[in-house]
Amino acid sequence: MRRQRGDRAEHRGSSPVSTSPIKYDSAELLQARLWVRMITPLGVIMLIAVVDVLAGRQAYLASLISVVPPLAALTLFPLEVVATSGLGLVVLIALSRYDGLDEPADTRLYYGTLIAFIALSAASVVISHLRILRTRHLVAVSSVAEAAQMALLRPPGPRVGDIRLAARYVSAADAAKIGGDLYGVLDTPFGVRAIIGDVRGKGLAAVQAAAVVLGAFREAAFDEDDLAGVALRLEASMLRHVPSGEFTTALLVGFREPDTVELLHCGHVAPLRVSPDGGTALLDPPDPWVPLGLAHLAMGAPKTWHVPFLEGDVLLLCTDGVIEARRRGEGPFYPLTERAPDLVAGSAADPEAAVARVYADLLRHTGGELRDDAVLLLLARGGAGPLPA
């Protein structure tokens, strides 16, 4: 099913990986019906023919049909370009004779026009062939990248333990470039634990670092009694497996005690707590820690802090691709703290609907697409009630 740009790969209850719109536009163009792909070149031929006839024999507009082969190369397969160009050639000859261009005085112009059209047609066939090869390669590589990202993230279901959740992951980079934003939610012996993070940079190096952090989190979250121990395990993995100087901002979340949430801040975007009545609190850390991979530059150790988190509250986590989003690099940043109350309040029973509203509002703010990778993650105490249909 075709969807709006930037929202093509979404699935209810988990975090979809929204990959490059270029991939989906290219694939759909290859699979489109013939008449859809033929509309533009055939329409141009008909338009030029009608205008030339209406203009009378004193005007010679038939040479404008030379734009048809390049247009056809943008949407058609090579053999279809040949057929379309052949039709264009027939119309070109007919209009040229109608305008009297085949008379002896105009023979040189007449044959020059035909030769130029044939040369453009041959070049357009080559261009079409190269375009098809590139598009198929792009679709194949992008599909592999999307599968790798999905395997890395392993999106959880709409409920983990007693926590309801919903997420959106958006990879804004083109082709096979996939980002380093990450998140994970696990049900452990120490309660539900979550992580959201952002690796510095993009591409395969960022994905490798994200895999290191997520792999360490999936192990440490089940072994360490407190979040500080989890953070130290993540730091050790970064130092062992990620090149020196690279780092990852992260926020660790733990739901171990009733009516509270435990947080550990490693240089990441502070979370928002939205109450059922729309009250919003930005949970800035009293003692923030450095990003993962940079602990050797700091004194002391990471420390957690606890804040109230009652039934009906929603915790909104995101990466900087959300709060730094703006239209084409201009204008104000996305005002998440101002928009969150109306979009998220009272959504503890259905965070999926809330994250969809936030994501849609974010796209409206940016003009329809994001220029950076972004993650939105909503967490709420959902109790044991049924999930929304």
From TrEMBL:
Skewed-composition ranges (Basic and acidic residues): 1-13
InterPro entries found in the cross-reference section: Bact_Sigma-Reg, PPM-type-like_dom_sf, PPM-type_phosphatase-like_dom
Main enzyme class: hydrolase
Location of region: Disordered: 1-20
Molecular function in Gene Ontology: protein serine/threonine phosphatase activity
Keywords, comma-separated and alphabetical: Hydrolase, Membrane, Transmembrane, Transmembrane helix
Transmembrane segments: 34-55, 67-96, 108-127
Domain called PPM-type phosphatase: residue spans: 158-381
EC number: 3.1.3.16
Source organism, top-level taxon: Bacteria
Matching PANTHER family: STAGE II SPORULATION PROTEIN E (PTHR43156:SF2), STAGE II SPORULATION PROTEIN E-RELATED (PTHR43156)
Full protein name: PP2C family protein-serine/threonine phosphatase
